[in-house]
């Protein structure tokens, strides 16, 4: 259950005892929410380097005296919400480093006759008490000199010996849950010189009779007093205001989640006679006044508010401050009316002429203001105002011009339903927040603006830098931004913070190159890199922008397509050149012709044979063929009927078809071979397509006539069957002598008739 840092979590595992085998390496041991009932001497003996031990929410009722003896380095011990019926000083005597001790939620009624904490010299925070805790005695806190925080659950505390808390010289923050008013008064008196901030919860404050100071002398230490979930009446509150003036060090007064039963009918004469209040800050949050609409105007309290500097009243149904009263807040610098019921008509009364003369910051957010023009006009009566928050009011529209306080520097108009920004926005601003308004553009000229917040709008690009040259911080979080360029970023010369997180970025190569190689971006972008995620392309959707790397093909698609086209063109060009050199086209055309011929019958019917021979010859040998051979054969007795392409081919018919048809209609094929025949294009390629069918059917149908001597090796390789015939068959040679020529014609005629 331990991680690399030796933090061991065994919580909620149903353990009945502290597991054995603990080693000196362990620094944190979490055994909370188990069923442990007892801590024995040997349980923690080996955990000498333990710094935090969490044992809350078990059933511990018994702890051996030396159980924590070896934990000299322990800084946090949580024994809260167990069943300890008493506390023993012996438990803590060796915990010299302990800073935080939690003992609340057990069943002890007191802390014993002496102090259980006398050896805890480094203790910083102490939590104790429970619903059964009823007695605090003198000496219970001996040994503790300084505490950062003291929390006491004394909801049923019935006995407090005066001076019990005086042994603690300084407590920064003391929280006590108490219901007894007498004990409250005594504790306040004991804490006047030691506690800086006293927080009292769940008290039902009656009308106090005795002084809270009595024989104590100033200077006092207590500066802040907070009431939480307390109950007041007009009478008890009125009396408390008088008595609290005696604590001259008190500067801050708070009431949070309290209830006031009354209508503001206070004893203003007694309050006035008691003198000026030293309180400078009053904070009232979520105070419930049953009939708040009947609350009176607090006439007579004017003298008590002249020195007040900060006033916060939030979520308390405030709907107006009378003008007469508002004019007496002479020193008030900060006023917060967040989440109340102020409307424009009542704001006219609240911020009247001469009211709040020193006010610098005003918060009117989340009220019921409807007119931005009127709101601006009313606040312009505040001569020193420089910070105004009117966010979360439903203005709906914005005028073209407005009157604002002259020195206004901060304006919050977020979530006010304004559809655009106009020149109503004051030129003096240094900080402007218009987040959450569905704005589609921002183009205002605001030369003094340093911070601009445009989150949760509909912007598709960064605003232009020229109208806001001094901008230091810009937020465009959760807009419709899909990228921004290096030029856009660098145009903001003084930019120190840019929040463009939670947008739907298109991770293009240009955007990624800029984002990943701009060194300054990592220091400027808020939320980098976790909040910057790609939305497209689909392959990288959901990935962090900083971690995405696109391929060369994805980044330079047009260039790659161009290169591929060029390569394909070169390949085609190369294939054409190779094909031309090695007669590939010839082979292809021959194959096509052969396939065509294959589909026809192998032999034409006898009635279709009309020629004795088809003559294949070179054009250069046409004189011998046409004037010598044709005359000799066609004038013979009986005559031979020869097929010549010049004479017998059907005009307009494809030459290949003419060749194949002529061969099929001829009993023989006569080839007149010569050097011209070999060196030329072999009587045109179309004539040579006949070879496939001719030699595939019957080699005896071919008659070779050598017009002049020729070697079979000189015949091109593509005429493989012709080469084979010349090597295996007898052929006729044209002789030079006339006597031999007669024999040549005789043999040729016999071959044709065979």
TrEMBL record:
- Provide any one GO MF term from the record: triacyl lipopeptide binding
User: What SUPFAM superfamilies does the record tag this protein with?
Assistant: L domain-like, Toll/Interleukin receptor TIR domain
Q: Where in the cell is it found?
A: Membrane
Record has Glycoprotein as a keyword:
yes
Q: Where is the TIR domain?
A: 609-752
Keywords on this record? Answer: Disulfide bond, Glycoprotein, Immunity, Inflammatory response, Innate immunity, Leucine-rich repeat, Membrane, NAD, Receptor, Repeat, Signal, Transmembrane, Transmembrane helix
Q: Which residues cross the membrane?
A: 559-580
Q: Which Cys-Cys disulfides exist here? A: 2-8, 323-352, 402-424
Can you tell me which family this protein belongs to? Belongs to the Toll-like receptor family.
Return the protein name.
Answer: TLR21 protein
What is the species of this protein? Sylvia atricapilla (blackcap)
């Amino acid at each position: 259950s331990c991680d690399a840092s030796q933090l061991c979590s065994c919580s909620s595992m149903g353990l009945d005892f502290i597991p054995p085998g603990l080693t000196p390496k362990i620094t944190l041991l979490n055994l909370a929410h188990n069923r442990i009932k007892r801590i024995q001497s040997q349980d923690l003996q080996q955990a000498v380097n333990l710094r935090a031990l969490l044992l809350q929410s078990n059933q511990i009722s018994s702890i051996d005296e030396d159980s924590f003896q070896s934990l000299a380095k322990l800084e946090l011990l949580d024994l809260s919400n167990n069943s300890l019926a008493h506390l023993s000083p012996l438990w803590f005597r060796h915990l010299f480093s302990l800073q935080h001790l939690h003992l609340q939620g057990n069943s002890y009624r007191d802390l014993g006759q002496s102090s259980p904490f006398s050896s805890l010299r480094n203790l910083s925070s102490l939590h104790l008490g429970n619903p059964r805790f009823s007695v605090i005695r003198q000496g219970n806190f001996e040994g503790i000199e300084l505490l950062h925080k003291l929390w006491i659950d004394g909801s049923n505390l019935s006995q407090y010996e005066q001076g019990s808390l005086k042994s603690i010289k300084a407590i920064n923050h003391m929280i006590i849950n108490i219901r007894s008013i007498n004990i409250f008064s005594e504790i306040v008196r004991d804490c006047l010189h030691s506690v800086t901030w006293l927080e009292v919860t769940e008290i039902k404050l009656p009308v106090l009779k005795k002084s809270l100071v009595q024989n104590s002398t100033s200077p006092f230490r207590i500066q802040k007093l907070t009431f939480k979930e307390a109950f007041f009446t007009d009478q008890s509150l009125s009396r408390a205001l008088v008595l609290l003036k005696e604590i001259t060090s008190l500067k801050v007064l708070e009431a949070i989640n309290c209830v006031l039963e009354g209508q503001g009918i206070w004893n203003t004469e007694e309050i006035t006679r008691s003198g000026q209040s030293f309180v400078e800050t009053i904070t009232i949050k979520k105070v419930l006044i049953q009939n708040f609409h009947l609350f009176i105007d607090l006439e007579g309290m004017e003298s008590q508010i002249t020195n007040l500097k900060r006033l916060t009243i939030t979520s308390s149904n405030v709907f107006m401050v009378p003008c007469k009263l508002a004019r007496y807040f002479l020193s008030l610098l900060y006023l917060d009316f967040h989440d109340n019921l102020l409307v424009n008509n009542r704001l006219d009364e609240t911020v009247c002429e001469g009211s709040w003369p020193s006010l610098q910051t005003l918060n009117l957010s989340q009220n019921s203001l409807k007119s931005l023009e009127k709101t601006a006009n009313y606040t312009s009566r505040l001569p020193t105002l420089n910070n105004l928050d009117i966010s979360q009011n439903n203005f709906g529209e914005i005028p073209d011009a407005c009157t604002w306080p002259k020195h206004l520097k901060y304006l919050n108009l977020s979530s006010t339903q304004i559809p655009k920004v106009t020149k109503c926005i004051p030129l003096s601003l240094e900080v402007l927040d218009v987040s959450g308004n569905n704005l589609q553009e921002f183009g205002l000229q605001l030369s003094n603006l340093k911070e601009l917040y445009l989150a949760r709008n509909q912007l598709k690009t960064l605003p232009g830098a020229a109208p806001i040259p001094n901008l230091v911080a810009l937020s465009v979080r959760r807009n419709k931004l899909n990228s921004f360029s290096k030029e856009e970023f660098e145009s903001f010369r003084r930019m120190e913070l840019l929040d463009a997180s939670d947008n739907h970025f298109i991770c293009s190569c240009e955007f990624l190159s800029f984002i990943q190689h701009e060194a300054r971006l990592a220091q400027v972008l808020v939320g980098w890199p976790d909040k910057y995620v790609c939305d497209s392309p689909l392959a990288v959707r959901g990935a962090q922008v900083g971690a995405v790397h696109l391929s060369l093909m994805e980044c330079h698609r047009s260039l790659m397509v161009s290169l591929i086209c060029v390569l394909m063109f070169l390949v085609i060009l190369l294939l054409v050149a190779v094909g031309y050199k090695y007669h590939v086209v010839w082979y292809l055309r021959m194959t096509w012709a052969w396939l065509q011929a294959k589909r026809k019958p192998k032999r034409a019917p006898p009635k279709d044979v009309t020629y004795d021979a088809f003559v294949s010859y070179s054009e250069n040998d046409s004189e011998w063929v046409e004037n010598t051979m044709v005359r000799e054969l066609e004038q013979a007795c009986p005559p031979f009927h020869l097929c010549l392409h010049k004479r017998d081919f059907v005009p307009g018919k494809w030459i290949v078809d003419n060749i194949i048809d002529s061969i099929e209609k001829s009993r023989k094929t006569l080839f007149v071979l010569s050097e011209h025949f070999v060196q030329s294009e072999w009587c045109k390629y179309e004539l040579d397509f006949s070879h496939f069918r001719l030699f595939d059917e019957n080699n005896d149908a071919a008659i070779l006539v050598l017009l002049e001597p020729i070697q079979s090796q000189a015949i091109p390789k593509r005429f493989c069957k012709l080469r084979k015939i010349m090597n295996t068959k007898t052929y006729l040679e044209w002789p030079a002598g006339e006597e031999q020529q007669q024999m040549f014609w005789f043999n040729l005629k016999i071959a044709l008739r065979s």
